[in-house]
Write a structure and sequence with these properties.
Elements (H helix, E strand, L loop, with lengths): L1 H9 L1 H12 L8 H17 L3 E8 L5 E11 L5 E7 L8 H4 L3 E3 L2 E3 L3 H20 L7 E7 L10 H10 L2 E4 L2 E2 L5 E5 L1 E10 L15 H13 L9 E9 L9 E10 L2 H15 L8 E10 L6 H17 L5 E4 L4 H7 L3 E3 L3 E5 L7 E3 L3 H15 L6
Parallel strand pairs: 3-6, 3-7, 7-15, 8-16, 9-14
Antiparallel strand pairs: 1-2, 2-6, 4-5, 5-17, 10-12, 10-13, 11-12, 16-17
Length: about 400
């Protein structure tokens, strides 16, 4: 494993330069110009690494452009196709990169997307370069995919991710490791729910009985949904937004709710969603009707035999380079969920160590870059020939 660490160390200066350049580009979900600029940078680096690159524009269900999915490929001498999956979008609006520019302090890098997931994408590319430098090509094909819409549930990238996942023997996902260094071996499923309630407006003082209060129905539905928490182990239901009414002397004729549903297991995810549908279909105020829209439903990624085998292999190669490897489940979903749904064996958290994602304090541990790139490169090399069943 010594040569892997040395080769990863040789890539460190380039990694730092690339990270600073990539974080300096605003690439929030939906900011198409910024996402394409970020894709241009990654494409140039992939081409320089000897990879063939394709770009595919994607749109949301309303046909609004979301940016490009970048797919870079490098052929090897073996038979297994190994997918490396990351994303270029962040949760931050345009102007964040200028207001909060990339900086390094006390061994940590800071900036929008530095950990989630620009640092991980660049670790994947560095691992490809490490294997090329050492002439280790036992894989059949390495495929690096970078999506532009992961932070909003990958509504445009889903078809391609499912195709790539079905074609791959394994998927190694490049979200950064947890802040304690753990890899990720399972993720909750998530559904973003939008409930629209329609009632009848009326004068609240003169003839309230002629109205049908959508706000009241939404309030009662909020309580009913909250009471579902605890019915199934690990299922959480949170009403995060409730908008209704406009004036205190008018019976509200419209309300809107945004709800977050999360679950560890597919059966519980489906059961909770079915119960939510039942409650929405029976508003608790006469004269009010409600409609439910489910946006970007992402099923749970449950631990499977293939994922457990990948975790075992990661621990094996980690021991060889002095990187202790543990793994955990996390409540946040990611593209790994969609790849697991396609039947692929998946392991996530293979980027460097980072934390405080989605916040102004987001950080990446620069001291973790070399060992984590070496770990990823070693795992790719091991997966290329090891028994996976």
């Amino acid at each position: 494993m010594g040569p892997l660490l040395a080769a990863a160390g040789d890539r460190l200066a380039a990694y730092h330069e690339r990270l600073a350049a990539l974080v300096a580009v605003d690439s929030g979900s939906g900011h198409v110009d910024g996402l394409r600029a970020a894709g241009d940078l990654v494409q140039a680096w992939c081409l320089a690494a000897g990879m063939a690159v394709e770009r595919e524009p994607v749109t949301d269900p309303a046909a609004r452009p979301l940016g490009d999915v970048l797919v870079a490929r490098r052929r090897g001498t073996g038979t297994r196709r190994i997918l490396l999956a990351g994303h270029l979008d962040t949760v931050f609006p345009p102007g964040t990169a200028a207001a909060r520019p990339f900086r390094v302090q006390d061994g940590r890098a800071y900036g929008p997307g530095v950990s989630d997931d620009k640092g991980g994408v660049l670790a994947g590319l560095a691992a490809v370069e490490v294997l090329a430098a050492l002439d280790r090509h036992r894989y059949g094909e390495l495929v690096l995919v970078c999506t532009p819409d992961e932070e909003i549930g990958s509504p445009g990238s889903r078809p391609l991710l499912r195709t790539l996942g079905a074609e791959a023997d394994v998927a190694l996902c490049l979200e950064c490791a947890r802040d304690n260094g753990d890899l990720v071996s399972a993720r909750k499923g998530v559904a973003d729910l939008e409930v629209t309630l329609r009632g009848r407006a009326a004068h609240a003082g003169i003839e309230p009985e002629r109205g049908a209060n959508a706000l009241l129905a939404a309030a009662r539905l909020t309580v009913a949904l909250d009471q579902l928490n605890g019915r199934w182990p690990g299922v959480t239901i949170n009403v995060g937004v409730l908008e209704a009414g406009g004036r205190p002397n008018v019976v509200a004729d419209r309300a809107r709710m945004l709800v977050d549903l999360r679950a560890w297991r597919v059966s519980e995810y489906e059961a909770a969603l079915a119960e939510i549908r039942r409650l929405v279909a029976q508003p608790a105020v006469s004269g009010v009707r409600a409609d439910l829209a489910v946006h970007a439903p992402t099923p749970p990624w449950e631990p499977g035999a293939g994922g457990r085998r990948l975790a075992e292999l990661a621990a094996k190669v980690g021991a060889g380079i002095g990187v202790p490897v543990a793994h955990t489940a996390t409540g946040g979903c990611a593209d790994a969920n969609l790849l697991a749904e396609a039947g692929t064996a998946v392991l996530d958290g293979l980027g460097p160590v980072g934390g405080a994602d989605h916040s102004p304090g987001e950080w990446l541990d620069l001291d973790s870059v070399v060992p984590r790139v070496a770990l990823l490169a070693a795992l790719i090399d091991e997966v290329a020939h090891a028994e996976l069943a």
